[in-house]
Amino acid sequence: MKKLIFIFVLCILYNCNTSKSSSKIMGNKIVVAHRGASGYLPEHTMEAKAMAHAMNPDYIEQDLVLSKDDVPVVIHDIYLDDVTNAYEVFPDRKRADNRYYVIDFTFDELQQLQVTERFNPKTGKQFYSNRFPKGKGNFKLHSLQQEIELIQGLNYSTGKNIGIYPEIKNPEFHHNNGKDIAKITLDILSEYGYNTKSDKCIFQCFDAKELERVRKELNSDLFLVQLIEFEEETKQLAHFATYADGIGPWYKQLLSKKVDGKFTFTNLVERSHKYGLKVHPYTFRADQLDEFSSFDEMMHTLLIDANVDGGFTDFPDKMVAFLSKQ
Prior knowledge:
The chain is α/β, with parallel strands linked by helices. Strands 1, 2, 3, 4 and 11 form a 5-stranded mixed beta sheet that branches. It has a 4-stranded parallel beta sheet with strand order 5-6-7-10, with helices on one face. Strands 8-9 form a two-stranded antiparallel ribbon. Helix 1 runs parallel beside helix 2 and helix 2 runs parallel beside helix 5. The radius of gyration is 19 Å and the shape is globular. Belongs to the glycerophosphoryl diester phosphodiesterase family. Keywords: Glycerol metabolism, Hydrolase, Signal.
């Protein structure tokens, strides 16, 4: 009951009126709520996803890791110890590297943990000091199925059509532990009506070999995005285009240098578009601006000047507001 009230209050605060939805955003640039509204609430919690939905992004992201009993858990890493109190609840369950792994726990065991704002497990220090206070609140881990039902339920009750943007994490690690996270995830997506490019689901992965397998061996017809992290990967666009529909680069891979106070850009967006690939860079953070003087400058530089097709942000309300003014 408390969670239902929480969701209702969020909708009032952020205006669930569909007339202000992202359908009015300039062109086809999409807003992806990165780990939910993670700039305001602990990442990948149901509360962060409900808050994100009320902010009217186009998609809400789900990072996925399998539990011991093959439940896709919505969490950013294969580790538990930087967003939960696993070290308190299960002090004897860490591996030789002193890390706690999602895959070593059943889903029921994972439900015993408290989720908190991301922190350094060695120092205990909160990663983003001005975000939701570490150790406060009553947040839990949840499954992909539970999150889909939340988003689809909110779509139904508000008249919106906000999509999902799942990412399978470290598939090679899962294979080495006898688990096929890609197939398990695709089967669940299919059960909930996500099967083709026309469905409101974008499937992403950093592992190029696995994402190609998703298309060619597992025969998925979903919209696929190849995440990229390293510079050498930007030279593989022709190959990516044989199975993917878009790329998700680190936004710094788009920037070249400043000339007379203005940013110049690499040719990554231009080359991607020539291959028919959409470009959704990560991550736009209002509290981690680095080379930018303001969040508006960051968004204008990347969304408008660099001509990307959308992006991931911890602050979906700010990105939606910016694009609605263009």
